[in-house]
Amino acid sequence: MNGIGALLGQRIRRDRLQVAMWTIGTALLAFFASVGVAESYGTTQDRTSLLAAAIANPVILLFRGLPSGADEGAFITFLILPWLCLLAAFMSTFLAVRHTRGDEEAGRAEMLAATPASRFSPVIATIVHGTLSNVLLAILVATGFIAAGLGPAGSILAGAATGSVGFVFLGVGLIASQLFRTSRAANAVSVWTLLALFLAAGIGNALGTPSDDLQRIDSSALTWLSPFGWAENTRPFAENNALPLALAAAVALTLIAGAVLAQSARDLGESFIAERAGRVEASGALSTPIALAWRLSRGAVVGWAVGGLVVGALSTSLASIVAEVGSTNPTVEAMLEQIAGAGNIEQGTVTIFFTMLGVLAACAAVQTVCRARQEESQGTAEMLLATPVHRVRWLAGYLLIGFVAIVAVVGAGAIGAALGIGGQAVNGEGGDFALMRDVAVVGGGQIAAASVFLVVTALIFVALPRATIALGWTLVLLGMVLGLFGPLFGFPAWLTDLSPVGIAPLIEGDTVDARGLWWLLGATTVGAVGSLGLMRRRELATGG
């Protein structure tokens, strides 16, 4: 096992900024969310009312944690713990893929294999690095809860639960890196696995058995298939049950052991799932840089668009249900107004779902720019730019495809919204097609918001190419937290207004609140022009 110490030091040095951003940012979210929720729901009656409404309307549980009582700590973890775990999972999967399959693609693993270091040394160093990062994350999250005034026992357990989910997804990323030949495929499979398990935990909670007083839910069996469900069933500040963490540790160790065994059974650069063979000759559709960018990105765009279709369908099909609950529960109505503004409850529901859709569109855009960075770091862009293709034209192609991805995701969401309304009409449940005006306004605003993420990531790509992937995804997650949950957590207006998705236009009754539309359009224009202008003089930056 030669060289593990040196490799570990290299990984820590290489990731020092990224890991610091993920861990400190997650801890700050825990702290500010705790403070904000304590101010917004300061009385037991407020918390009891919201929990009863959430349990009576299981859809809310798809995007929240497991209800464990109205005590302040338990209520805070009900609202925020799944999202802390989500951040830990993203950090861990990206870390695992970057230092395994990513290094093999970049040729660094081959150079290490030419030294006396063992072939297991890189993966062992990555496992230790990922474990230490999740331990640090757990400690900082616990510190954030304690600093917000919550009890130490529950805070430590909440931090440990967050870190345990990250530990499991470290194993998921390592396994994906063994199965697939490219880091792009490994990252894509890891992220979709993550989102599927996150949704499984939410559905499992929604299908659970509520208590008679509607303050607690016993999860269904589906929740126990998800690491997020294991974390939630620790029930910090309520039962403080650490046993589910043993299950997370066992699964994580099994995945990690499987990755180590797989490493020993394959050749360097190979994978267990072979890539599909390409054509001998390219079709005429690949005759331009834009066509090539589309060919490389179309699978991801289609995947995000399918997610947009589902979110759009939920936005209208559930709007009447949420409106019915909100009309009889002032706490739910106030919560929707905090997030969505002053429109009616159905408009607020559409706004909330389409704000989530804007986040999905931003993810599609950021992934497109990250694809350009991967082409550059792997050397394939250099071969393309050795032809008469200008580097500005090359980057412009990815920006165009990124914008197409944004429109595709939001457009799919609008189609889903129309299908949701049509389904209600067919079933005799009404179906208010007037909501499509709200869909058009809010969807258009989220196109503008997601475009800001597109050009900001492009600016990072031009100015700090090696930080493109880490900073691009970090900004999307930060924008989601501030824009979607900032008002609910009581964040100050100036802070939530920093998120493009938080200042996008929305409907308030019969009027349109343009809010920050001109700022969004201005920022998009400046970012696009600036990134293309700076690209003219920028040298290629190969390597990760």
Summarize the structure.
This protein is mainly alpha-helical and 544 residues long. It is 72% helix and 2% strand.
Question: What are the salient characteristics of this protein?
Answer:
single chain, 544 residues, mainly alpha, two-stranded antiparallel ribbon, 21 helices, 72% helix, globular
Description of the structure:
It is a single chain. The chain is an all-alpha fold. The protein has 21 helices and four strands. It has a two-stranded antiparallel sheet with strand order 1-2.
User: What's the overall average pLDDT, rounded?
Assistant: 85
- Which strand order spans the largest sheet, edge to edge or round the barrel? 1-2
Give the beta-strand count: 4
Q: Number of DSSP helices? A: 21
Assembly classification: single chain
- What letter string, H or E per element, gives the SSE order? HHHHHHHHHEEHHHHHHHHHHHEEH
Unreliable stretches covering 5 or more consecutive residues? none
Estimate what percentage of residues fall within beta strands.
Answer: under 5%
Q: Which descriptor suits the 3D outline? A: globular
Question: Radius of gyration over alpha carbons?
Answer: 23 Å
Derived from helix and strand composition plus strand pairing, the structural class reads: mainly alpha
Percent range for helical residues? over 70%
State the end-to-end CA separation. 25 Å
